[in-house]
Amino acid sequence: MTADYYVADTENGDHIDDPSEDALFILISDLNTVDNTFVVIQPDTDDPVWFATVGLLSPGQYEIVRRDKHRREHELQISDSISDIAKDLTIWLASRFRPNQP
Fold first, then answer.
1. DSSP β-bridge partners for residue 38
2. Phi/psi at 48 (nearest 5 deg)?
3. What are the tens digits of pLDDT across the range 5-49?
4. Beta-ladder partners of 65
5. Of 77, 79, 73, whose CA–CA distance to 25 is shortest?
């Protein structure tokens, strides 16, 4: 089965097609400072036009980067709430797929 919209990949090799808010929460919760410091969410294409990353800065502190070349968006945020990060990313990801949008 392949992703309909996007994939999430972690540094340690975890992969989820079209992750839900709960799945993003789990992926982010599993980040650690040893061998799994980031998760990348992007379309499953050779040259994605947008992506989001969540990186672990220190235990309990995360850096979120959102980039969309077509919409000329580039945002950076620091947060300590995994719930807020997963919710905000889910909303942002859904906005990539409005009707009549690439």
1. 55
2. -65, 140
3. 899 999 999 999 999 999 999 999 999 999 999 999 999 988 999
4. 53, 76
5. 79
By CB atoms closer than 10 A (0-12, 13-18, 19+), residue 48 is: middle
What span, in angstroms and rounded, lies between the C-alpha atoms of 86 and 54?
10
Q: 97: which 2 tokens?
A: 């797929």
Q: What is the pTM of this model?
A: 0.90
Q: What is the DSSP letter of 36?
A: B
Q: Among 59, 24, 56, 51, which Cα is nearest to 37's?
A: 56
Residues 10 and 47: their CA atoms lie apart, in Å, by: 18
Which are the contacts of 77, defined by CB distance < 8 A and separation ≥ 6?
A: 63, 64, 65, 66
**Contact by Cβ (8 Å): 67, 92:** no
8 A C-beta contact, residue 96 and residue 50: yes
